[in-house]
Structures are given as C-alpha cells and as structure tokens.
C-alpha cells in the first residue's frame, strides 16, 4: 500500500516526486519505458526523464508554456519556476547556458515580444541531471521502470493500479503524469467518468535562415520569443542546426543547440499555429494523414522560401543543416500555416531591417502534441476524488519549465 502512486516519470512526475522525497509519505513512481541508461533512440520520449532529456530548454516566463497562471496564480507560478531552476542547478545543471531575452525597442503591429530567461541544458547535460535525479530519488522512494499501467480502478476507499503484465499496486492517492496522449489516458477518463475537453495539436514550419539577418533584432542575445497574431515562435537556435526527430512514429524537424554538434552560420526556429479537434480520434486521423504527406522516403520535406513566394529574393546563401526531400509545401501544408508564415516573415522584415533571404529553408512540419485536457480544480484534482493530473496530460502545461513547476506545486500540496 502506497500513500501516493505517481504514474509517469517524465518531467512533471519526477518533480512531483522531488517535492515528496523528504516527507514521510510512501511513494511509488511508475514509468512505462526503460530507465535512463537503457533509453535508446527509439525511446526518445519514453523512459525515465521523458522529454527532459531532449534539448533541455527551460523558459522561466509566466507568459507562455501553458495556463499555469490561470490554475495557481501569477505569484505562485513565479515561485515554482524559481524552484525548478534551483533544483536543476543543484543536481548538476550549473554549467547550462543561461540567457535573457529582451523585447526589442522597435515594435511592429501584430507582434508581441516576450521577456524571458532561458536555461538551456542541451541533451548531454540534461541526461546527467536526470541521472542525478534518479540516483537521489531511488534512495527516497520506490521507482519501477518498464511498468506500463493499463488501468486505474476504485478499490474500497483506495485505488487499484494494474499494469499490462497484471502487476497490481494499491494507492491512497494517484498522480497521473504521463505526458503525451495515449490509450491509457482515454481508458482512465472512461473508467472514472472524467470530463474531457478539446484536443489540441500545434503545427508549423521550422525555418532555417542566415543568423546574420537577425543581428539588428537579436544583438548578442541567443534567442527571442514572439507571437504574431495566432502564431508563436518556438525553440530558436542561433548558430544551431536542424535535426530530424521521431515522435509518435512521425519525423519532425527539431532545433539543436550549437554546443551539441558544432556551430553553423544559420539560425532556426519553428512558427506554430494551434489546431483544435473535438476528440483524440479526430486529431489522430488528421495528423496521421498530414504526416504521411510530410514524411517522404524516410526524410522530412522542405522547400526554399523563394520557391514558395518569389517576392523573397534568393540572396544570402543558406546551407541546409538537415537533408530534406524537396517538395511543394503549398500542396500538402494547411493553407492557414502557409499564409500566416509568409505574412509573418514579410512583417518581420521591418524589424530585421532587410529582406529575408529567399534561400531560407522551410521544413514541414514541426508539431507539438497535447493530451486531451481533463477538468481539474486549483490543486489538479479531478472530479474523481484523490486522482490528480499534472504536467502535459493535465492540459495545463506544455513546456519543460511549466510541467516541472506544476509537478513541484502538486507535490508540495500532497506533502501536507
């Protein structure tokens, strides 16, 4: 019998456990994937650490990364975000790249620039930090990996947690922190009669262009974050590279920090637009169809900007850092994304002070997947008593920092 069972050892689940580690609570942390040492390429998002061992970008702004402010308030969000940074540094992240993003003095209509502090660990340091988390937690709580939970069922006044291997655990309180949408979440909602909201998926092109063009706007900054109407920038990498990342069986273009595999002359970032679906089935069907068009011959498709819109002159050369399959993006990418991206770039020229090179490479498509949100109260408790949802699967957070902050906040509440 456990006081608390945490299902999912991703970012939010781990930070929930960290909040409970020094208490007298008997805690079990279950993870469907392998431990950190056994994670391989095919386990990029599965296993201890979850997305925490990706590029490791923690953005400490309350303005983006989820709706945590609406859930726990602005001041508590700021406090929890500070605690996340302290823990990352305490467990080995002192050498991470930390930089400030400041809005430019010049403002252009329809653009909003966000002031933010970023702590960028990179993949190598992220693995070291999360290994330190594991080594610490295993001395305080029980951790079991390769335990894929299949069902949560009420059992007298507690809950029964059953895995696919028919192993059964009992807990007084259950924290669901499984991250991405999957069959298990759907099953839990049905079994416990929980109210679900719409399913969200963000889609957008990843752009790779000469970093020199951003000198006026960036200065010595590593990154700048902005929104343009219903679009938002994500994961900007100055001097970085574009890599192919597999997620949910799809290939998507991702940004890589220059410290990982050497610097380039380019800058890359994604420009996302949110799409909403009535349910997970509808969302999955749509995304499967789109990625069957985006992924060709084992490669991500791409196109030069001047080929997409001839008003952008093919001036400064751009050497693509990711081999791609040339393809007409207008034939396969939703027009809302094409039109919005082109409009954003044309307006962005006013800030950059020059024409954007038509040799800019547009990769299709980057994506952010969100589980269907479950309705919860201010402490992440669902309508099923003592069942809590935190991190991305709550629908509240969709960034590393906010997922971690949500886990810390919930863990502190459960520790009382």
UniProtKB/TrEMBL annotation:
Any single Pfam family the record assigns to this protein: FAD_binding_2
Family matches, as InterPro entries: FAD-dep_OxRdtase_2_FAD-bd, FAD/NAD-bd_sf
Keyword check for Oxidoreductase: yes
Domain of life: Bacteria
Ranges where the FAD-dependent oxidoreductase 2 FAD-binding domain occurs: 3-37
Keywords: Flavoprotein, Oxidoreductase
PANTHER family registered for this protein in UniProt: DEHYDROGENASE-RELATED
Protein name per the record: FAD-binding protein
The species this protein was found in: Lactococcus nasutitermitis
């Amino acid at each position: 019998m456990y006081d608390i069972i945490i299902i999912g050892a991703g970012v939010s689940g781990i930070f929930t456990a960290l909040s409970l580690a020094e208490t007298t609570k008997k805690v079990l942390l279950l993870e469907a994937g392998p431990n950190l040492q056994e994670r391989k390429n095919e386990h990029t998002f599965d296993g201890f650490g979850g997305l925490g061992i990706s590029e490791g970008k923690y953005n400490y702004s309350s303005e983006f990364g989820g709706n945590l402010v609406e859930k726990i308030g602005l001041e508590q969000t700021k406090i929890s975000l500070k605690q996340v940074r302290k823990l990352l540094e305490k467990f080995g992240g002192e050498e991470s790249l930390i930089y400030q993003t400041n809005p430019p003095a010049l403002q252009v209509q329809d653009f909003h620039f966000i002031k933010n502090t970023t702590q960028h660990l990179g993949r190598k340091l992220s693995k070291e930090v999360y290994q330190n988390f594991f080594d610490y937690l295993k001395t305080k709580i029980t951790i079991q990996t390769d335990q894929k939970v299949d069902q949560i069922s009420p059992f007298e006044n507690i809950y029964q947690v059953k895995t696919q291997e028919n192993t059964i655990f009992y807990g007084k309180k259950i924290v669901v922190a499984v991250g991405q949408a999957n069959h298990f979440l759907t099953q839990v909602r049905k079994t416990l009669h929980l109210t679900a909201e719409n399913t969200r998926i963000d889609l957008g092109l990843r752009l790779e262009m000469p970093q020199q063009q951003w000198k006026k706007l960036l200065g010595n900054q590593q990154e700048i974050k902005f929104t343009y109407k219903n679009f938002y920038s994500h994961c900007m990498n100055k001097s970085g590279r574009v890599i192919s990342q597999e997620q949910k069986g799809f290939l998507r273009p991702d940004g890589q920090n220059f410290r990982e595999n050497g610097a380039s002359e380019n800058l890359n970032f994604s420009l996302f637009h949110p799409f909403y679906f009535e349910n997970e089935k509808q969302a999955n069907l749509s995304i499967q169809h789109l990625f069957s068009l985006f992924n060709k011959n084992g490669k991500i498709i791409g196109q030069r900007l001047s080929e997409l819109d001839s008003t952008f002159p093919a001036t400064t050369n751009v050497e693509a850092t990711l081999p791609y399959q040339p393809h007409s993006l207008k034939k396969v990418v939703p027009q809302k994304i094409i039109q919005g991206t082109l409009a954003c770039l044309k307006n962005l020229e006013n800030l950059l002070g020059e024409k954007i090179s038509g040799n800019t490479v547009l990769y299709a498509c980057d994506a952010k997947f969100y589980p269907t949100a479950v309705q919860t109260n201010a402490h992440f408790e669902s309508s099923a008593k003592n069942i809590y949802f935190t991190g991305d699967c709550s629908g509240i957070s969709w960034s590393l920092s906010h997922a971690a902050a949500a886990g810390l906040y919930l863990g502190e509440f459960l520790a009382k």
